[in-house]
Design brief:
By secondary structure, this protein is mostly helical. The protein has one domain. It is 56% helix and 6% strand. The protein has helices at residues 8-32, 47-54, 62-67, 96-130, and strands at residues 42-45, 77-80. The protein has a two-stranded antiparallel ribbon. Helix 1 runs antiparallel to helix 4 (96-130).
């Protein structure tokens, strides 16, 4: 059996894409509940888990960080944002303009992640062709 780390980056990018997709769903839920009294906006925290999984050491290469990343820790976690804060009388704290901006930014991020995955597969194809 060949022991290879060829898919390390792809695995991390795959988890990141899943988290971004989940964030799109959460933002969509916020938009759908913009007029629901008492609703508190939710969001996804994935960046913190990614940072922790990759480690904070400046003296370790990214390849090493990705190779040793604990994939089981890379899961998006939903949280209620500013649960005690509301600028509306009905207790809802969803701002439609903010949600639309967050959705657009997340979609751009998702497209970048997918492009990264595609690039990694192209690199693998190039290596296989040259072998």
């Amino acid at each position: 059996m060949i022991n290879s780390n060829a898919f390390d980056y792809i695995n991390v990018l795959d988890r990141t894409a899943d988290a971004s997709w989940t964030r799109n769903e959460v933002i969509g839920n916020n938009i759908a509940n913009v007029n629901t009294p008492g609703y508190k906006r939710q969001d996804i925290d994935f960046e913190t888990q990614l940072r922790q999984a990759l480690g904070d050491s400046r003296y370790v290469t990214m390849d090493s960080k990705v190779r040793h990343a604990n994939m089981s820790d890379l899961r998006p976690r939903a949280y209620v944002d500013h649960s005690n804060y509301s600028y509306r009388l009905d207790g809802n704290n969803v701002d439609i303009d903010t949600e639309n901006m967050e959705l657009a930014a997340n979609q751009i991020k998702y497209q970048g992640i997918i492009a990264g995955i595609s690039s990694e597969f192209k690199n693998l194809q190039a290596v296989m062709r040259s072998s």
